[in-house]
Amino acid sequence: MIKIGVTSDNHLDVNRLDATLILEQQAAYLKTNKFDYYLIAGDQFNNFQKTQTFVTQLNERLQGQTQVYFIAGNHDMVNGLTYPELQQTIMPAYLHQKYVDIPETDYRIIGNNGWYDYSFATNLPEVTAAEFTRWRNAYWIDGGIKGLGEDLAMMQTVLNEVQQQLNAAQLAHKKVLFMTHFVPQPAFIFFSLDRRYWNMANALMGSAHLGQLLEAYQVQHVFFGHLHVRHQPTTINGVTYHMAPVGYGIKRLHEWASQDFMTEWRQTLQVIAI
């Protein structure tokens, strides 16, 4: 049996945590509970290089007992590297546009950071793509990411990359576990009757087209974050989606069920066995 744990949206800096202490506590838990893989689906820090260092040190601490892989969320993208630089092969544990086959199984873990194409803003048909982009740059953290192109074109590149990855997995007769940061399924999006800000933000949550692609290839499991709402694993059109981000535990935005980060991390850790 292979044991896999998945987390997202730890936001260690926003949550004002001692990253060194958290690393030791998470490493101890993963080792004690004999996890084979630990996947981080984005938003570890507001700086990619800090996330990169954390993952490197966690892998060193785990000494190969648990293998750690990660992708970048939009918060990771804000500092450290530009968006074009994040498309490169940076380190073995960075799974964006890459995959890892699980030995002695027919499973493959595929990673892609993802992006968005405004397809979740269906209740705002009057808003143009240019207006969504201006709103993003004025009000959303993504406006600080350096080297961005046009959102719809960027998302189309993501879709092309993912389709190539899924085609290759299909040819290799692999079952797929897919990790991304942005939301791939409209079933998880909610609309507000009186909060235009939230309805505009839906445009930046992800892409319905990614979900359609994953379902067309009958991906086994999909892990994602970004939207700070927790759900039990949900199967839609044959694909099981997992979303249970840790989220924020700060005074202004307290999304935790407890007051303790490690309690939240353990309770939101998605665990599957194959």
UniProtKB/TrEMBL annotation:
Gene3D superfamilies: 3.60.21.10. It comes from Agrilactobacillus composti DSM 18527 = JCM 14202. Residues 2-229 form the Calcineurin-like phosphoesterase domain. It holds the Pfam family Metallophos. The lineage of its organism: Bacteria, Bacillati, Bacillota, Bacilli, Lactobacillales. GO terms for molecular function: hydrolase activity. This is Calcineurin-like phosphoesterase domain-containing protein. Signal peptide: none annotated. NCBIfam families: acc_ester.
